[in-house]
Amino acid sequence: MPEHDPRLLYLTRRDVAAVGGASAGLYVDALRAALVAHAEGATVQPLKPYLRAGKGHIADRIIAMPAHVGEPGVSGLKWIGSKHDNPAAGRERASALIVLNDPETNYPVAILEGGLISAWRTAAVTCLAAEHLARPGFTDVTLIGCGVIGRTQVDALLERFPGIGTVHLHDLRPEAAHELAARLDGRVATRVAAEAEDAVRAGDVVLPCTVTDRPYLEFDWLKPGTLLANVSIMDVHKEVFLRADKVVVDDWEQSNREKKIINQLVLEGSFSREQLHAELGEILAGTRPGRESTGEIILLNPMGMAVEDIACAAEVHARAEAQGVGTWLDLY
Ligand SMILES: NC(=O)c1ccc[n+]([C@@H]2O[C@H](COP(=O)([O-])OP(=O)(O)OC[C@H]3O[C@@H](n4cnc5c(N)ncnc54)[C@H](O)[C@@H]3O)[C@@H](O)[C@H]2O)c1
Contact 81/95 with Cβ under 8 angstroms? Predict the structure, then answer.
C-alpha cells in the first residue's frame, strides 16, 4: 500500500485575488446557491463561538465559524480574529484563515487567506439583498464607517448596480471618509457628511459598517423605500426593528443570540420569529416575497454565516486548482 502523503493548497490573498476573489461576481453566484441551500435546510452550521480574552472592546475577539455546504460538498472553518485598534497601528482590523476539508476523508485540503473572502462575501450578501429588497432603480448609497468592510460594500455595489449616482460617506474619523471619497473619484459622485443623520437621510441603500456598540441610527432618519443593510449589527436603535415594514435576517438562530439587538428585543418580549419577514435565502429561493412596494422600509440584519465563507472559499479553491494557482504544502 502506498504511503499516504496528504498535501494541501495554500492560497495567499494575492492568489485569492488572482482567480477572481477581488470582485463581486464570484461571490454573488456562490452565495445565491449557498443561501438557498441554507434556507432549504441543506447546510450544516453550528452556532459560532466567540473567543474573548479579557474584557475588551466589542470588536476584540476571535470567532470560529464552521460549516458544511453542498452534497458531497465541502466542509470548512473560518477562524477570524479582530482587534478594534489594529487600524490605528496600520493593520486591518480583522485577520482570517479559512481551512477547507474534503468531506470524503475530512482531511484538510486547502488553507486560504480569509480576510479578502470575508469582506467580499459580506458585500455580496448586500448585493443579493439589494437585488430583492432595494427600491428598483435606486441611486443613492450611504456608508457609515469607511473601513475595509465599508469600502468593499461600495466597490461591490458599484460593480453590480451601475445606476448608482452618489455615495454619501460618514466616519467618526473624517479623514477615513475623505480618503474613500478620493479613492472613488472618477467612478461615482461622493459627498462626505459631517453627521451620520445627514448621510442616512440621503440614502436609498444605507450601510452601517462601524465598530460601534452603541446604537445611534433612528427610524425617522430613513426615507420611504430605504433598504438598511445593518452590516455592523449594533448601530440601529431597537425602534427600527419594531417600525420597519420588513425585517430580514440571514439566519434567525444566529441573529437571536449574544445580546445582539434582536436578541435583546426577544428577551424583552417585543420581537419574535413570527414578526420576522424572512431569512434572506427564502427570498432568493422565491418562497417568501422581497420588496412589495416602493415605499417599504426594509431592515436586513446580516450576522454573517460560515456557510457563506465556506461556499465562497470552495469556489476560490476550485478555480485555483484548475488554474494552477497557489502553493502546495505537505501535511506530514
Ligand atoms: N455582518 C457581517 O457579515 C460582517 C462581516 C464582516 C465584518 N462585519 C462588521 O463590519 C464592521 C466594520 O469592519 P471593518 O473591518 O471595516 O472595521 P474598521 O475598523 O476597518 O472600520 C470601521 C470604521 O468605522 C468607523 N467608525 C467606528 N465607529 C463609528 C461610528 N459610531 N460612527 C461612524 N463611524 C464609525 C471607524 O473610524 C472606521 O473607519 C465591524 O463591526 C465588523 O464586525 C460584519
Answer: yes
108-135 residue pLDDT tens: 999 999 999 999 999 999 999 999 999 9
CA dist 145 and 152 (Å) reads 11
pLDDT tens for residues 140-186? 999 999 999 999 999 999 999 999 999 999 999 999 999 999 999 99
Q: What DSSP string describes 145-171? A: --SHHHHHHHHHHHHH-TT--EEEEE-
Question: Which residue, judged by its Cα, is nearest atom 43 of ligand 1?
Answer: 232
Q: Based on the fold, state whether residues 204 and 287 are members of the same structural domain.
A: yes
pLDDT at 2 over 80: no
> Are 190 and 315 found together in one domain?
no
Shared domain for 30 and 137, answered yes or no, is no
In total, how many domains does the chain have? 2
In a domain, 236, yes or no: yes
Q: Indicate if 78 belongs to the active site.
A: yes
Q: Who lines ligand 1 at CB under 6 A?
A: 59, 87, 93-94, 118, 122, 144-150, 170-173, 176, 196, 209-212, 231-232, 302-304
